[in-house]
Amino acid sequence: MAKYWQEDMETMSPEDMKKLQSERLVKQVHHVYENVPYYRDLMDKKGVKPEDIRSVDDLHKLPFLSKADLREAYPFGLLAKPLSDCVRIHSTSGTTGKRVVAFYTQHDVDLWEDCCARAITAAGGNEDDVCQIAYGYGLFTGGMGLHGGSHKAGCLTLPMSSGNTERQIQFMRDLGATILCCTPSYAAYIGETLHDMGLTPDDIKLKAGIFGAEPWTEEMRRSIEKSLGIKAYDIFGLTEISGPGVAFECEEQSGMHINEDHFIPEIIDPETGEVLPEGSVGELVFTSITKEAFPLLRYRTRDLCVLSRKKCSCGRTLIKMAKPMGRSDDMMIIRGVNVFPSQIETVLIEQGYSPNYLIEVDRKNNTDTLDISVEMNPDQFSDKMKDVQDKEKALAGAIKTMLGINPKVHLVSPKSIARSEGKAVRVIDRRKLHD
Ligand code: DLL
Q1: What are the two backbone dihedrals, phi and then psi, of residue 209, each rounded to the nearest 5 degrees?
Q2: How far apart are CA 96 and CA 242, in angstroms?
Q3: Residue 290 phi/psi, 5° resolution?
Q4: Tens digit of pLDDT for each residue in 252-288?
Q5: pLDDT value at 97 more than 80
Q6: CA 348, CA 233: separation in Å to the nearest integer?
Q7: Gap from CA of 392 to ligand 1 centroid (Å)
Q8: Is the pLDDT at 383 greater than 90, yes or no?
């Protein structure tokens, strides 16, 4: 069985990879400068000409692009090919402001599907597998991206889209699905529903899951692996850079290999824009060097993470990114302390609670408030007020130890928090509504 989808690229020596990236970058910069007036203006303002970019070492000379640029250039301003050469559009799931739209030529779709096929192969997928795609289909890139990857990897593809959870499980059983692709929060929900239906992992054939599109913790990974009886692999991507498959996890499960023959990553200081050395935490920036229609150069993702070139036991030499800690704009500042939802999730699962929770932040009498509603599992449920209060106190104490600030914890009855079929909404910050 093939261990890699594209072995030559996935195991290329770092020196050869740098050479390849440099060649592709030089070509891409010319393509963008000649065809995207919006970016040409940014380069001109910075005094950079395409001839100044001769290798990856010159990347830092190029101007950044941000979501604000994408909004300003909406919808066609960053297009580098005539629309008649494009065959697909996808769009971000953002709920505020103008949506971001991304365009693909057939060549772009092909490369993107290869990236997803690499992820499926790394999770052990091949022509003997049945791959159930329960990411949403449509403008969101999750469904279509993994669908294309699954076809390429030769799996029998089950295009379920998200939702209708009992039917997902019925098909999973009847058709013997072996790989499940969906968001981690939906995987947790599918696992919970399986058990509610009186079934166990022995009743299904799943062996692996490819979960991404939202931050999730190692504790959540273990909880899903147990409830579905599988190995759970992380997958990362964003619409602006193509979709899922920008980076993917291998069997080592210690960070995601970035498909750096297509996307050059950098980590920068989000305040100053300065490029940080390998191993530093900072904002992830991508330059796409093979895309034709929507080739973003130095795009600031706002995702915070760390890159590492440590040798991987899987044999891939592609650089790895750690699980993103969340977006810089997911980070809440509560009473002056930086808080990521993932820190709270870690404590909840460690303390034996379910991954069903809701964080509410507000400001009362000029002080920030942090309320966390957490579902009890049926075996934790008690109708004795005192029991519940003791548990709430213990959990609040554990969260305070992690964060340094005191939350108010509300233990709520099983199944009272809405489940997610796509990207989970876990935080409501009402302070933003008052501002
Ligand atoms: O979420 C693409 C995708 C689909 C990735 C399916 C993986 C699987 P967007 O809707 O544009 O695209 O959202 C992109 O989601 O900038 C991250 O903040 C977050 N994100 C994506 N994957 C992960 C992950 C898709 N594995 C934004 N871990 C990104 C943490 C993730 N955050």
Answers
A1: -130, 145
A2: 21
A3: -125, -10
A4: 999 999 999 999 999 999 999 999 999 999 999 999 9
A5: no
A6: 21
A7: 32
A8: no
Angstrom CA distances, 166 to 186, 262, 358, 418, stand at: 12, 38, 24, 16
Is the minimum distance from the CB of 243 to ligand 1 under 6 angstroms? yes
Q: What spacing in Å lies between the alpha carbon of 213 and ligand 1's midpoint? A: 3
Alpha carbons within 13 angstroms on the beta-carbon side of residue 329 total 7
Residue of 302, 235, 238, 212 lying closest to 102 (CA atoms): 238
Q: CA-CA distance, 45 to 29, in Å (whole number)?
A: 16
CA-closest candidate to residue 175, choices 199, 198, 204: 204
Q: Which residues of 18-34 are buried (b: 16+ CB within 10 A; e: fewer)?
A: bebbbebbbebbebbbe
Ligand 1 neighbour 235 (Cβ under 6 A): yes
- C-alpha torsion 274→276→281→284, nearest 10: 70
Percentage of the chain beyond pLDDT 70 is 98
Q: What is the pLDDT of residue 94?
A: 62
Per-residue pLDDT tens over the stretch 356-376:
999 999 999 999 999 999 999
- Report field, pTM of the whole predicted structure over 0.85: yes
Calculate the average pLDDT of the chain. Answer: 95
Which of 410, 372, 417 minimizes the C-alpha distance to 391?
410
Helix ranges (DSSP H) in 93-203: 106-122, 141-152, 165-174, 184-196
- Token pair for residue 348? 């909840």
All domains of the chain in start order, with CATH = 1-328 (3.40.50.12780), 332-429 (3.30.300.30)
Query: If you average pLDDT over residues 49-56, what whole number do you get?
Result: 98
- Is residue 95's pLDDT more than 60? no
Indicate the pLDDT class of residue 433, thresholds 50, 70 and 90. Answer: low
Give residue 90 CA to ligand 1 midpoint distance, Å. 14
The closest of 169, 176, 230, 160 to 196, measured between CA atoms, is 169
The arithmetic mean of pLDDT across residues 56-73, rounded, is 96
